[in-house]
Structures are given as C-alpha cells and as structure tokens.
Specification:
This is MORN repeat-containing protein 3. By secondary structure, the protein is an alpha+beta fold. The chain is built from eight helices and 15 strands.
C-alpha cells in the first residue's frame, strides 16, 4: 500500500525527538554519577559571593572559597574520616556520619589556632568522653552530653583551683571535691553549681575544719574544730606581762545541750531548702534506678494519652503510698515546681517525681511550713 511521504516525515521527527530525549536522559545520569560523591575525595569546596562595592563593582573575583572538606563520602554525605575547614577559620578533624560530626574528633578555633575540644561526638554535639580547652584558660576532662559537661569530670581552673566530681547540664551537681590553690579543701555536695547540703571545708592556713550544712554556697550551721597535726610545732608567743595577774571570779558560760541545739539548727536549714533542692537536684541522685521505675509505673497507671496526670490523680497515688496530703498543700508544692507554668491538670512525670521527693523529705515537719 502507498502511504503519504508526510507520514514518514512526521514519524522520523517523533523518533528523532525520542532519541534526543534518551540521549539527554542518559547524559543526565552520566553527569549525576560523576557528581555523586562516594569514597575518598581530595577536596570539595563551597564558595560564596564577594561583597560588592557601593557602585556595584567588585575589587576581586566575584566568588571566593568559603569552606572546604577533605575526606570520605557516602551517597553525597560526609561519612568516615574527614577534615572540615569552616569559613570563619575553624577546623574539625575526625569522624563523620550523615553529614554530622560523629565518633572521635578534634575541633580547632581560628582565634589563636588553638585546640578547643578533642573527644567523642554524636550528631554534631560533644557527647561521651572528651577534653575541652576554654578560652579563659580553664580545662575540663570528663563526660559530656549535648555539648555540656554531664556526669563525672574534672575542671582545672585557670587560677589553679581543681574541682573533681559530678556535673549536671554544665553545672557542678552532686558529690564533688574542690581543692583550691592556697590548699583549702571542700568535700561534699553541690546543687546548681553551688555548695548545698552536707559538706566539710578544711582551712589550710588556720589548720581548721568546718563540718556541717551548706546553703547557697555558704556554711549555714555546723562545727568548727582544729585539726591536730603531729608534725607541726607551735611557736611560743612572746610574753608581754611577766607579773602574775589574778582574775576575778567569772561565771562559767556554757551552751545548754549543745548537741541538740546543733541538731535542731541543721534540721531547720534542711527544712528551709527542701523545695529548692527538690527542684534542682537531678532525679538520678534522689532516687535509685528501681525507685524511678516504680514511680514511673505508678504514674503511667493514672496518666492520660498525653502521659500526664492531674493533681487529683497524684493525691490518689500518694494515698496509696500511705501519704495523706491536703490538696491545698499539694497545690502549693506544685506551684513551686511548675512556677509560671502552673497547671494542676497537666503534671508530667518529672514534676511528679519531684513532688514525691518534697513529700518524702518533709515527713516529720509541719507540711504547711514547707513553702519556702
């Protein structure tokens, strides 16, 4: 059969367009494969535009190198070992995963070309064990979590003081020992970066020690005593009055029942700080792991779909635990814990656990007085 030549012309055009489309598609795939970063690359640069002059011209080239990465890649993401040079002059050398700092690595800052941190990283944050060199001269060796000292660690301060002990979200918290450059020595508990609770302080120059209760970084009540050092020889003081002097009879002054007075004073100091300590002390310092699990089960048994309970729920839980607390007193405690976010219908697990801590610590006291 005879067919019009125009038919063949149109068919050839369609075939030509199809072939060109296939060539473009193949070329795109080829180019994409070339651009795909996998394995070791010598260097990948990021550039940024130069700032223009007022008249719109530029003194130098339009583009300038801003960042550079040399290292391993996996599917266009930094993965493995690599060195990143940042636009501000900082540098990181170490492990990568999914375009983030992960594993062992060291970070340098451009100012002074000093090493800032070396240690473990998780998703671009200092997490694990590591050493931080601060610009003020301090140095921290220990455990990190989310870019903050958290756990056991030692801080060597620029002035020569050394703290070794527990940390919580970047602050000294828990049991710790502070040794000062002059020889003074504190050993005891810390809350919110301050000495709080039981602690002893040794005064090196006086050869005396204070043991007692600390409040807001200051000694509140306790006992001062002199430390006997068998290797220290006391110098005899010069005698200014050689003639004997007879003193008149002076009535003997004694503190009535000093042991009980000290005990009551320490109990008062603790009572006044119950809520403050319940707010700031980490939960894992107030409870054992088993206790936290038991409290969590009690909480979940009464919680809603949003994992929250009401004040009425919490009162019922306390009653099942053997504590009969008035609702207005619970409201007072909750206001201190939630502060400006007070809501007795949305109590979270952490708030509930801290509420329990207040109730446990306030046993034996008049509940209405625990509102400091």
């Amino acid at each position: 059969m005879y067919q019009d030549a125009s038919y063949y012309s149109q068919s050839q055009q369609k075939q030509s367009v199809k072939n060109n489309s296939m060539k473009v598609a193949r070329q795109w795939q080829i180019n994409d494969q070339k651009a795909e970063k996998n394995g070791l690359h010598k260097a990948i640069y990021w550039v940024k535009s130069q700032t223009k002059n007022e008249d719109g011209t530029q003194k130098q080239e339009r583009w300038v190198a801003d960042q550079k990465y040399v290292g391993d890649w996996n599917q266009n993401k930094k993965c493995g070992f690599g060195v990143q040079y940042y636009g501000n002059g900082d540098k990181y050398e170490g492990g990568w995963f999914d375009n983030q700092r992960n594993g062992q690595g060291t970070y340098w800052v451009s100012e002074g070309k000093n090493k800032e941190y070396t240690g473990d990283w998780v998703n671009d944050k200092k997490t694990g064990k590591g050493t931080m060199f601060y610009q003020n001269g301090n140095r921290y060796d220990g455990v990190w979590q989310d870019d903050k000292s958290h756990g056991e660690g030692r801080m060597i301060y620029a002035n020569g003081d050394v703290y070794e002990g527990s940390w919580f979200k970047g602050l000294r918290s828990g049991y710790g020992v502070l040794t000062k450059r002059n020889g003074d020595h504190f050993e005891g508990y810390w809350v919110n970066d301050k000495r709080e609770g039981q602690g002893s302080y040794f005064f090196a120059t006086k050869n005396q020690v204070f043991v007692g209760e600390w409040v807001d970084d200051m000694p509140k009540t306790g006992v001062y005593s002199e430390v006997e050092d068998p290797y220290t020889v006391k110098e005899e003081r010069e005698k200014h009055f050689m003639d004997p002097y007879v003193l008149p009879d002076i009535p003997k002054v004694e503190l009535h029942d000093p042991t009980n007075v000290l005990k009551e004073s320490m109990e008062l100091a603790r009572k006044e700080r119950i809520i403050y300590r319940a707010i700031h002390i980490p939960l894992d310092e107030m409870y054992s792991k088993q206790e936290m699990e038991d409290l969590a089960l009690q909480f979940e048994s009464a919680s809603n779909q949003e994992h929250k309970i009401t004040l009425i729920n919490s009162k019922a839980i306390f009653q099942s635990m053997g504590f009969d607390i008035e609702e207005k007193i619970l409201q007072s405690y909750l206001k201190h814990l939630q502060q400006d976010k007070y809501n007795e219908f949305e109590i979270e697990l952490e708030t509930f656990m801290r509420l329990v801590a207040i109730i446990l610590e306030s046993q034996g006291y008049d509940q209405s007085e625990i509102n400091i």
